[in-house]
Amino acid sequence: MTELTTGTTASVPLAKPDSVRQRSPLYFAWRRFTANKAAVGAGIILLIIILMAIFAPVITTTGPNDQDFLTNALNFPSGAHWFGVDNLGRDFFTRIVYGARVSLGIGFSAAVFSLLVGLPLGALAGYLGGRFDWVVMRIIELFSVVPPLLAALLLATVTRGGVWAIILIAGIFGWKDVCLLVRAQVKSFREKEFIMAAQALGASPWHIVWRHLIPNSVSPIIVGFVLAIPLAMMLEASLSFLGIGVQPPTPSWGQMINVGMNFMFYYWHMAVFPTAALAVTILAASLLGDGLRDALDPTLKGR
Amino acid sequence: MTGFIIRRVISMAVTFIVVSIVIFLMMHSIPGGPFDGYEMPLPDNIKAKLMATLGLDKPLWEQYIRYMWGALHLDFGVPFQSPGDTVIGLVAHAWLPSVTLGGLGILFGAPIGVLLGMAAALRRNSWIDYLASALATLGLTIPVFIISTGLILVFAVWLKWTPASGWGEPKRWILPIMAYGAVPLATYARYARATMLDALNKPFVSVLRAKGLSERRIIFQHVLRNAAIPMVTIFPAMFVGIATGSIFVEAMFRVPGLGAYFVSSIDKRDYPLEMALMLLISALYSISYLLADILYAVLNPRIRIEGRAR
Fold first, then answer.
1. What is the mean pLDDT of chain A?
2. In chain B, is it the N or the C terminus that has fewer CB atoms within a 10 Å radius of its CB?
3. pLDDT for residue A93 is more than 50
4. φ and ψ at A64, to 5 degrees?
5. 3-class DSSP state for residue B52?
6. Is the CB of B153 inside 8 Å of chain A's CB atoms?
7. Partners of A90 in beta bridges
């Protein structure tokens, strides 16, 4: 974080030396972020999708599981049904909008879960070092040997799918990124003078971690949190696509793509809309995460 | 160097054993057994007898040791879903389309990715730079089955250039190979760009320019060599994608490969096949990471010293 206040990038003009004003690192991060058009665009799109998910009942008056007469099933997009009707006679636009709730809900909850596990473990591993660090690193190594998707497959079968199981699984495979980011940051701060001063004043390890190290790790924490969201959404979609994720009739985009595949050759709307919705949302979330990472920690750029 | 390799191999072996135990336990903790899925339920005494002949009534630790001992002798047992075959035979048979597809996918994706990334680094902020970053972001963030759906929709449904699915004549290989190649392409486009930029900004490039060396020689003789090291070291990791990629790509394009067995073996509680597949993938994972580490150490001596100090 110290580099943020002194170092500048070419795109951020500094104030004149005679009118120096104390600017917080977050101010410069914000300036860097708004200079990144792709990230800002992605953020706006994501915001629209989030608002759509929150106000889903206002946007479409029909419920996600309301069925029309089956004679209308598989109708193509029209004025009454913007995205057409699915094979069970449900309005597809409504299904897509409610699908955003599932996808984003799982993405955010899994990210929170990753943070709750990864943050304390990473901070303690970085601060304490030694045996604790060794154990945490070995656990992370274990997770890197198993392909996440295959282990998730197994776990999803053990738990028989469902929203909470998916959140748990995504968290289990998401915490290690947060943990590694926080650990690296804490480790580099552990030897700094202000930590030594705090130690000399008799502060407990818990106090040092909570009051000094974690506030100094805000950028990796935000970055880890935001980047965990698209990963969890991807996992949910993949598992639902394979039929072991979110169970019907709960609308999930991955599941809709799986069904839509069978109708794709004639009833194209069944495949196009969920594919586009998932692609746009995941892309927006990752672009936003990348933008935030570049803005908050310019040293990580290009990785 | 030997010390470094031995240390890595030992740590890999320990991790591998722990992972195999965890997978074995997880596999057996899935409710239901291999003979519960029939339309007509088996009588209990017959089921018990079947379980006994297959050794499934033994305690878990004994089953694990028996399985791993067999695996050491390349005997992975008989798959429950096709008792006339062996796991090895079944995997060897299904492995061929998966490996062909994966290998061709890497051969298609990696070189294009490297070229794109290099071009992007040399012409920063040009259209090719934007194209490379767009492709890299798309390939790395969007799940493979979305890319596959997109490819089928565009090339098979709308343009009708290629068949949508199947396996056999090479015409049907085009779309799955493109879907497979997306990840290596994206990885290399991003990676090649970053490493090239890194090398281009090193002071030795300024020295070479000051010396009056032609730009072509600087790039191809000096910069490329420096940038190649990290590019080579991530190559083994590409093969790892074959395993997970195969589940989705093969399902989307109806390729008779290994992918379908991942899901069906879990579904049918086909323990020997499931365990063999998981072991195979974990081994592939560990070996490619080990290879990447060793390659990196060979190409970059600084790592070895760092490793010794640790």
1. 79
2. C
3. yes
4. -65, -20
5. helix
6. yes
7. A67
In this structure, which amino acid lies at residue A29?
A
Mutation for testing the A interface, residue in B146, B269, B281 having most A CBs under 10 Å: B146
* Position A137 pLDDT exceeds 70: yes
Write out the DSSP string of B145-181: HHHHHHHIIIIIIIS--S-SS--SSGGGGHHHHHHHH
Q: What is the DSSP string of A200-211?
A: HTT--HHHIIII
Distance separating alpha carbons of residues A97 and A83, to the nearest angstrom: 11
Of B136 and B76, the structure prediction assigns the larger pLDDT to B136
Closest CA to A176 of A107, A245, A113, A131: A113
Query: What is the per-residue pLDDT across B237-261, written as a single tens digit (0 to 9) for each?
Result: 777 766 667 778 887 788 787 877 8
Q: Residues of A227-242 as b/e, b for ≥16 C-beta within 10 angstroms?
A: bbbbbbbbbbbbbbbb
Of B22, B197, B240, the CB nearest to A302: B197
Angle at A193 between CA A189 and CA A195, to 5 degrees: 60
Rounded to 5 degrees, φ, ψ at A90 are -100, 145
H/E run at residue B86: none
A6 or A141: which carries more pLDDT confidence?
A: A141
Answer whether residue A2 shows pLDDT above 50: no
User: CA B159 to CA B152: how far, in whole Å?
Assistant: 10
Q: Which residues contact A274 (CB under 8 A, 6 or more apart)?
A: A96, A99, A253, A254, A256, A257, A260
**Which of A147, A155, A286 faces B244 most closely, judged by CB atoms?**
A147
Name beta bridge partners: A67: A90
Report whether pLDDT(A70) > 80.
no
Q: CA B287, CA A235: separation in Å to the nearest integer?
A: 25
Write down the residue that tokens 């012409």 correspond to.
Answer: B123
Please give the pLDDT value at position B198. 82
Q: Residue A141: which of B15, B197, B282 has the nearest Cβ?
A: B15
Q: Does A264 touch chain B (CB under 8 A)?
A: yes
Among candidates B143, B281, B286 on the partner chain, residue whose Cβ is nearest the Cβ of A237: B143
Tell me which H or E stretch contains A303.
none
- The tens digit of pLDDT for each residue in A99-112 reads 888 888 888 999 99
- Residue in B141, B266, B286 to test binding to A, most A beta-carbons within 10 Å: B141
CA dist., res. B172 & res. B165, Å (int): 6
Q: Which residues on B lie below 8 Å from A302 (Cβ)?
A: 194, 197-198
For residue A256, give the chain B residue with the closest CA: B146
pLDDT digits (tens, 9 = 90+) for B47-85: 777 777 777 777 778 788 888 887 777 777 777 777 777
- 3-state secondary structure (DSSP) of residue A78: coil
Structure tokens at B8: 């890595």
Identify the bridge partners of residue B140 per DSSP, sorted by sequence position.
Answer: none
Question: Which positions in chain A touch B29 (Cβ < 8 Å)?
Answer: 158
Would you call B141 and A286 a contact, using CB atoms and an 8 Å cutoff? Answer: yes
